[in-house]
Amino acid sequence: MITPEPHDLADLVQALHAEGTPWLPAGSGSRLHWGPPVQDTSTVLSCQRLNRILEHAVGDFTVTVEAGTPLRDLQETLRRQNQWLTIDWPWGSDAEGHGAGTVGGLVARGMAGGLRQRYLGVRDQLIGIGLLRADGVAARAGGKVVKNVAGYDLMRLFTGSWGSLGLITEVTLRTSPQPPERRGLLLQGELGPLDELRRWLLSSSLTPELIDWWSPAVATQAGADPQHALLLGLASVSDAALRAQCLEIRTRAEQLGLRGQPLDPERLEALRAVALGHPEPGGWLLRFGTLPSETSALLAERVLRDLPVVLGAGSGLGDGWAGSELPAYRVEELRRSCVARGGVLTVLQQPPGGHVPAWDDVPSKPMIEAVKAQFDPKQQLARGRLPGVRDPLRP
Ligand SMILES: Cc1cc2nc3c(=O)[nH]c(=O)nc-3n(C[C@H](O)[C@H](O)[C@H](O)COP(=O)(O)OP(=O)(O)OC[C@H]3O[C@@H](n4cnc5c(N)ncnc54)[C@H](O)[C@@H]3O)c2cc1C
């Protein structure tokens, strides 16, 4: 992995372009192997030395950082001002955010966890971006103020681009005040009543930070009963308001025959850390997507009953992992099930020698390929890996 000094980056990318050398943009390199294999990984260009926090406009609730800034450093800096970036620690990090990777990597993968329930996804926090195109020319979009911009939306294009369109060098993100009070609830019981509670909750005026489905395997791992669960996280400026919300939810849950366990903030964090899990190096890591109304039906699938799965009850997005003993045809079955439920399944990691495509072609494939051709005409970047395209055109 090459880790160039910031002032050498543009020259280096221009030289790679002139030679037509394939290369892979990288942050800290923590999750480069996830997703489809890249055809040529001899040149990996890391942004790790682009690691400055350029401006934290505390009063404006924005922060501008270089792309190689570790997410952990950013959250630590914001915390000193009682602010935060409303994003979970990524899978595979620990509860303190060790191994969480860089902010550029976070944007390039565009994935978010359960906190999306209240705060939406990574792209919704992004208000400005600086990048180097494949030909080494610098480009910029958005700004440092929270507003909508007209025109070509580079921010959304690069969020989830997996390094296939250009090198992100700088991002401006919106920040939020730390909620002073937090509480949690773990609700357990049969899937049917849990789903009814989920529906009631989503149509109520309550705005939990988190409504995560847990499969029985995750509940067991967390020391709870081996049954499905809903983990709720609630946040507010007032503890009295939180107590009232918890009471309302528990009353409703009891009417439905569910058991509720109140969680103080420390316990909530500890349980979330267990659920975060550490995918086995040689196993499967699967990203599920389904219509939110279909989440309980997906969890009822036979193959998912024994696997650790965490699924956002309001977003329908989540992750599951399994050892190498899970046969590939079961994963294909799950993919068909997700598609039938209005979603997708992405294989982030699979056992060695596995041949399940990371993703299938999406309906907008022709447009994705046209954008790729414009941004990277020589097909140099992340060759063989283009989100939404099963077999990207080879040069
Ligand atoms: C709750 C949650 C769950 C997540 N789960 C997963 C998951 O299961 N799998 C996963 O892969 N990610 C996941 N992510 C995203 C995760 O944050 C990133 O993968 C991680 O930040 C990568 O950090 P890194 O710096 O080590 O990037 P790397 O591992 O170096 O790179 C990751 C990807 O981003 C690209 N990339 C990195 N930096 C840049 C840049 N500056 N410009 C252009 N492209 C770049 C790389 O080409 C590669 O495709 C999750 C995030 C959250 C919040």
Structure report:
The chain has an eight-stranded antiparallel sheet, sandwiched between helices. The protein has three domains: 51-177, Uridine Diphospho-n-acetylenolpyruvylglucosamine Reductase, domain 3 (2-Layer Sandwich), CATH 3.30.465.10; 181-276, Alpha-Beta Plaits (2-Layer Sandwich); 284-349, Alpha-Beta Plaits (2-Layer Sandwich), CATH 3.30.70. The two termini are 24 Å apart. By secondary structure, it is of the alpha+beta class. A hairpin with a 4-residue loop joins strand 15 and strand 16 (317-322). The chain has 14 helices and 17 strands. The protein is globular and about 70 Å long. Bound molecules: flavin-adenine dinucleotide. Flavin-adenine dinucleotide (FAD) binds at residues 24-32, 34, 47, 67, 87-88, 90-91, 101-102, 104-106, 108-109, 111-113, 162-163, 167-168, 285, 319, 348, 382.
CATH C-level name of the largest domain: Alpha Beta
Annotated CATH topology of the largest domain: Uridine Diphospho-n-acetylenolpyruvylglucosamine Reductase, domain 3
Helix content: 25-40%
Question: What fraction of the residues are assigned to beta strands by DSSP?
Answer: 15-25%
**What is the radius of gyration?**
21 Å
Number of helices: 14
Task: Quote the distance from N terminus to C terminus.
Answer: 24 Å
Largest sheet: 8 strands, antiparallel
Structural class: alpha+beta
